[in-house]
Amino acid sequence: MRFAAFFFDGVSRAFHQGPSFSKLVVILAASSGGLVAYADSKSDQAIESSQVAHRKKKMVVLGTGWAGTTFLKNLDSSLYDVQVVSPRNYFAFTPLLPSITCGTVEPRSIVEPIRKIIKKKGGDIKFWEAECFKIDPTNKKVHCRSNIGTNLDGNGEFLLDYDYLVIAIGARANTFNTPGVVEHCHFLKEIEDAQKIRRSVMDCFESASLPNLDEEERKRILHFVIVGGGPTGVEFAAELHDFVSEDLSKLYPTVRDLVKISVIEAGEHILTMFDKRITKFAEEKFQRDGIAVKTGYKVVEVSDKDITMTNASTGKMSVPYGMAVWSTGIGTRPVIMDFMKQIDQANRRVLATDEWLRVRGCDGVYALGDCATISQRKVMNIFMRPISSSPFSASENIKREDISLIFKVADKDHSGTLTVKEIQDVLDDICIRYPQVELYLKSKQMSDIVDLIKDSKGDVQKESVELDIEEFKKALANVDSQVKNLPATAQVAAQQGNYLARCFNKMKESDENPEGPLRIRESGRHRFRPFSLYAMDQAMVKL
Amino acid sequence: MRFAAFFFDGVSRAFHQGPSFSKLVVILAASSGGLVAYADSKSDQAIESSQVAHRKKKMVVLGTGWAGTTFLKNLDSSLYDVQVVSPRNYFAFTPLLPSITCGTVEPRSIVEPIRKIIKKKGGDIKFWEAECFKIDPTNKKVHCRSNIGTNLDGNGEFLLDYDYLVIAIGARANTFNTPGVVEHCHFLKEIEDAQKIRRSVMDCFESASLPNLDEEERKRILHFVIVGGGPTGVEFAAELHDFVSEDLSKLYPTVRDLVKISVIEAGEHILTMFDKRITKFAEEKFQRDGIAVKTGYKVVEVSDKDITMTNASTGKMSVPYGMAVWSTGIGTRPVIMDFMKQIDQANRRVLATDEWLRVRGCDGVYALGDCATISQRKVMNIFMRPISSSPFSASENIKREDISLIFKVADKDHSGTLTVKEIQDVLDDICIRYPQVELYLKSKQMSDIVDLIKDSKGDVQKESVELDIEEFKKALANVDSQVKNLPATAQVAAQQGNYLARCFNKMKESDENPEGPLRIRESGRHRFRPFSLYAMDQAMVKL
User: One GO CC annotation, please (chains A, B) (predicted)?
Assistant: First the structure.
């Protein structure tokens, strides 16, 4: 290394504008949990130990998508020692991905470097471009691995301690284990995917234009297939159609008549998650544009030249294609599946959190965005509770129901029956804790709980009615039908990120002044309102 | 294929705006030399055979860089049946490549689709996105291979016939066979190279910022090495410096002091091809900026972490690095090397053309831009000529000199001596055919050939002097020292493209009215002036 020293002779002054490196070492030591040797100097050790006493809680945020980035932007990062881990050092405005595929928008227009966001917030957040490959909730650690060709000791892995872990790593494309999809289809989840699709579209036009091909082969190459009639697939099909008809057909006049775009959807319609009028409009528009919408076809295999699918009436069949985009929804990432096994969620498809975005059974772990779903507590929920509240005699359990506890909380005079007034007194809290109650009233076009009681008990006078527990149960019997999972959209992820950041920002205040609804099973109030879509002040969401 | 037909049911109308496909078949048949079966229909055959009679000459253009694209833009494509072959379906404004590496400029801003250029010209040019991998001058064919994953019959290869072949495929990066360069270094010749460099720079900053690295390793990762002090390397070093100091040092405050940029140059100075004042300015500026310029170091090996080099005074040594860009000039592409073997140029480093950009010894083959050099005929050239001009007795050759023939042409009265007037009569033609004569006069600050004669014969009266052949030879003895190869720049390539297009456009007219200088070895005039830099009307160059 003789030469190395010679080479590094006093040149680094050029970029020197800030704090010295020794300060950095201390920050690293405090944050990365004993992995950096403290032996730098005596004084460093002294500073370090005094810091440990009042050190901030360590927060690790996994992911920089909609959920993670919105969380980060809204978090008061002075309150925590924040570390962000993501294989992408930027946030991408994903709804515009289909436009990247056809060059309508350039990638740089839809990305925002995470380090710029950090800098805007004062710079006391650390970012590691790496992927978390194991969550260890028992020891409160996450295992990470750099995805760049680094020469870290060993295999480029490192370990981070946390007090709070915010999991926002999103989902992966779901192939339903269909053979050939990973090898031959494009996905459309990342910027790189969109760029690859763009190159692939151009390649198809170029190769279809080559000499010595028969027309059948040219047609095959120019058959663009989109598997999945969800918003991403439909958006891409529309963008591609416009790209072909407005630009490519002029540049490739000899092959433009051979182009074909098909959307293959297993269900009966495309865009089923939206209003039926939207579905109808899209299907009609696609027909006018010459985009073939093939509903009721399930793709079972993809080879380099053919897509094989089954259909109820026609059976199995193959269709030749040139390029295919697979967009059939989202699946759980392996790291989350492993995590779910550790926390007794192995039998679930998706990681479940409570209404406060806390992962059940894990202290200090939160999950939001596409990697988790909120498992809404049901009014008719039945759960087991130890007879004695003492942990030493917790061997015997009895069955409890939420609805009985709600009745108990509402029945302030312990009369065994509820008056309308008693119900109305707790109704706001009930509706916050169990939003399905309000949704149910709305769905039945009822303005008030009294209507619900009337409905179950027959026509009665407003004030005089009293309900016993069975009547109360009967009145609320069907409200849980309104429990629905939130869609896996950018909007939901962003609102969750903002919600959770607000909770962390108000953690201290809410200890003294809880904001949430009445607790049903215990006394007092919940610290925060549960997460609910559109409930927050929209002006607060920094996007 | 039952389903295929069902799938293609009358949807292609969507992109139908132009000529029918049957017309395309005829065009292809006429152009690709019998490779497409003519059996389409009787009428097609009739059209085809009538076209063969007065069919245009087939021109194949290889390459879409500066030379190829400028040629294409300036060519009157109605005169020829033009086919363009290139692995890139766009022209790139390469001088801005270094700016792509740091995001100053976006790739789409510096590219122009070839098909757009073709469309502007009326669309009667065919473009194939493929690479020529063999030139066959004997049979006047080029062998091409598509570089896209197509499913052409066989291995995706096809053959094109030509009457005229314009080779403008540029050069490859020259590694001088240094071990490890291809594996570990970036080049900077294509858009993709620049994009890779950009990602690599970001990756270096991200990986140097990871936890658990010692400072030595961080320094290694942030050591950016540019091998080669030519315009490309220097430009990149400067761009990178600005990128680091203006942007990255703000986003990566913890590692900014560890960044180091080095330019390694085997020669004594950087930018030796330019004026010395430019070299001095660049070296001083780099020193102020903290960019290390290491001249006199020759890189002999590159590994994944170290660059090994030799230096006259210090011997062999290694320096750790994070990213390296190799930019030490250009080398000949394999297809050109193979072509050179076929035409007896195997002993040359670069493909040679005459002053009219014609490849010597190849009928109808032209080469321009970085893939060829003009081999300027020397005044003192000695060549062999058959005693008889009849091809049947060409077994005996005699030595001839250009200078003697020039003397003979100038000596109109066959007196055996040249008067100043006789010399002046042919001087313009001589200077066009042998531009070194004019350059020599300029370099000696002589305004006229009389000065040259004076210089060689001593002080004499202007009009009275007469030169015999030996005196004439003596006067011109040193002019050939001014013969220089043109630099491998975009400017030269573009001017050559424009020059050659103009020649092809005027091919017919120039038969009757030759524009060139007097022929020395034969009677009459050359068809065109030889190519010379800056000699053309600049307004004509469409860039």
Answer: mitochondrial inner membrane
